[in-house]
Amino acid sequence: MPDDIYAELEWRGLIHQATDPELGKLLTEEQFSLYCGFDPTADSLHLGGLIQLLGLRRMQMAGHRPIAVMGGGTGLIGDPSGRESERTLLEPDVLEQNIAAIRTQAEKIVDFTPGPAQATMVNNADWLRALTLTDFLRDIGKHFSVNQMVARDSVRNRLQNREQGISFTEFTYMLLQSYDFLHLYRELNCRLQIGGSDQWGNITYGIELIRKVTGGEAFGLTSPLIKGLGGAKMGKSVSGNVWLDPTKTTPYRFYQHFINVEDTRVGQFLRFFTFLSRTEIVELEARAREEPQRREAQKVLAREVTTLVHGAGEAARAERASKALFGSDIAELEEGELLDVLADAPSSTLPQTILRSGTSLIDLLIGAGLATSRKTAREFIGGGGVYINNTKQTDIERTVGEGDLLHGRYLVLRRGKKNHHLVNFG
RNA sequence: GGUGGGAUACCUAAGUGGCCAAAGGGAGCCGGCUGUAAACCGGUUGCGUAAGCUUCGGAGGUUCGAAUCCUUCUCCCACCA
User: Fold this and answer.
1) Backbone angles phi, psi at A12, to 5 degrees
2) Whole-model pTM?
3) Which parts of chain A register pLDDT below 70?
4) What is the structure's pLDDT at A365?
5) A326 touches strand B (CB under 7 A)
6) Is the CB of A165 under 7 A from strand B?
7) What pLDDT score does A212 carry?
8) What was the ipTM of the complex prediction?
9) At A425, phi and psi to the nearest 5?
């Protein structure tokens, strides 16, 4: 084990808590099998899950063996950690689909091909569903004290919350995840679990269970949660969750999301989301301080992460599109370029005949989904936020005719700085 | 099973007969400054060009007039059993 992976993670700010101060040393001395669980509550991971995948990969590059655990069994129950309301239970077949989707995402980041540090993937449904209630209560439940369990933050909050209680189902969740760890410890000699800091409680319970049942020693390592990654706010103009699935978040949007990262956080993001070396990152941070207006750190960040998740081809495309959309004159583009640049933008098709007599800009905006009502469409135009082919429009009465089309059939609508829409008059 | 409390726009939360299309805050959106950043400033967030129309958990009623009063239904919470 040549690299000091712990020091590396620490430098990147990826260590929130570790269960043992000796862990760093141990990781340089012996090979570990380590696991991270992935919750199949959706058919794609988002950026928080990406950090964990990258964590597994970083460990793998340091010679350790990652195990990606799909929560097919725990997903049936629902993890109350960090949540203030009860989860909706998922149907087993939905879980299956979600797991399949997440599996392909994991395979892009972590290396599952044979080798000394080969990664494996398992589904905890395989062992959890085989458990019988009586065995579970005798062999696992016996090791947990309810007194301790109710003292946990995630449980206590829900117990004290006047609006939301906690069901027995979710209350039991932590036992299941603990059992996962025990199972992996026994079957795959897995001695380390990593996860977001919200998993600390679940992880330490697992370690304790392993100690009580087998007398063995296991470890836990958590990374900080980045505020806003789950879909809350993160940068003013970026909305919604950022998914790894290209059909849920297009590569262009994905790329843009990182381009828009605030100056104050771009360094942190480079450390969290890329495999760039220390020297490269330090260099980029320095340049970001000196010439922030060039946004070089953001550009490198966006390219790196988009490449990791969507591949070099998509990253290059997103980069080209960004340059064209924010830099050059759209009307100058060749037809092929135009279509390529707007490939990820929403688009719609309308019959060209409606342009004969001219059709109103307001209607086009609504049709394109860039405005929800005539009233708001008027406000956008009046406020100077609407563009046709990147030319600002201020006339509320503006109508669009055949003369406005690019290459005889395209119209690029834009609302605000970042929302483009391609209308194809076929 | 009993008792009490509650349901208001994206979220939170005021409003308890007309001055309410509904305060305040958060969040979003558009604009300005800049650098596709932050901070800040301005505007905006039911529909309609407008007159006006439709909204305050659902249904019905009282009234000239209801988010506000009455009846009933649904759901949520707390305490007691």
Assistant:
1) -75, -5
2) 0.88
3) 1-2, 80-89, 157-165, 227-240, 328
4) 94
5) yes
6) yes
7) 95
8) 0.85
9) -90, 85
The pLDDT assigned to A363 comes to: 92
Nucleotide nearest to A366 (CA to C1'): B47
One-letter amino acid at A15 equals I
Place of tokens 């060039």: A294
Q: Give the per-residue SS3 of chain A.
A: CCCCHHHHHHHCCCCCEECCCCHHHHHHHCCCEEEEEECCCCCCCEHHHHHHHHHHHHHHHCCCEEEEEECCCHHHCCCCCCCCCCCCCCCHHHHHHHHHHHHHHHHHHCCCCCCCCCCEEEECHHHHCCCCHHHHHHHHHHHCCHHHHCCCHHHHHHHHCCCCCCCHHHHCHHHHHHHHHHHHHHHHCEEEEEEEHHHHHHHHHHHHHHHHHHCCCCEEEEECCCCCCCCCCCCCCCCCCCECCCCCCCHHHHHHHHHCCCHHHHHHHHHHHCCCCHHHHHHHHHHHHHCHHHCHHHHHHHHHHHHHHHCHHHHHHHHHHHHHHHCCCHHHCCHHHHHHHCCCCCEEEECHHHHCCCEEHHHHHHHCCCCCCHHHHHHHHHCCCEEECCEEECCCCCEECHHHCECCCEEEEEECCCEEEEEEEC
> At residue A177, what are phi and psi to the nearest 5 degrees?
-65, -35
Kindly determine whether the C-beta of residue A237 is less than 7 Å away from any atom of nucleic acid strand B: yes
Whole-number pLDDT of residue A88:
61
A13 CA to B15 C1', in Å? 48
pLDDT tens, residue by residue, A119-141: 999 999 999 989 998 999 899 99
The Cα–Cα gap between A193 and A209 comes to: 13
Give the pLDDT score at A236.
Answer: 32
Q: Which amino acid is at A98?
A: N
Residue A232, nucleotide of least CA–C1' distance: B27
Length A69 CA → B77 C1' (Å): 37
Residue A368 backbone phi and psi in degrees, to 5: -85, -5
